[in-house]
Amino acid sequence: MKYLKFKNNSEEVAIGKMVCIGRNYAAHAKELGNEVPEFPIIFLKPASNVIFSGESVIHPKYSNELHHEVELVLYIGEDVKNATDEEAEKAIHGYTIGLDMTLRDLQNEFRKKGDPWTLAKCFDTAAVLGEVVLKKDYSLKGSEKISLSVNGTVRQNSSIANMIFSPVEIVKYISQRMTLEKGDLIFTGTPEGVSKVVPGDKIQAELENIGTILTQVKFA
Ligand code: ZN
Hints:
alpha+beta; 16 strands; 17% helix; binds zinc ion
């Protein structure tokens, strides 16, 4: 079992399901040749995929195109189902920064065949997390800068203001389909600039006022 890391909080919370949003920034949907969706695109990652800032991403040998995706991650702190706007906002107890590491070559192949993305999105170390900042310590403005660099070169540089679906809309939508529980995390999608990383690369990511991630890519 994996447990969350918090800033200023010693509570032990096991990580539940990780629900991820695809194509939540128009410029990123465009760079991968996709339409901007009418509803959020949803996929899952298991908690066993989690590592934390400072640990290494292990590059699977069966892929030649490992991509970084830097994202705002919502921490769900209470159970919620069929949420109203108010309930959705209340269920979000904090925020962190996350990397949704993706095997783009596998994903493209699955997309062509109409197969699930599961194995492109789920592998050990495919979810890199920072520390969760609770709302009592910081209230999200919605205009925080989000960026990622590889070996010191900026690759992703945007603002969470560019998200198509807001955190409240995302929590409402997911909670109409499945109950969200304390310990669940929601990856809210990545801005444009996703690119390939190889073993030896050092990734540094930052979400303004929330946190940073430092990791490097390695072969097993
Ligand atoms: Zn993503």
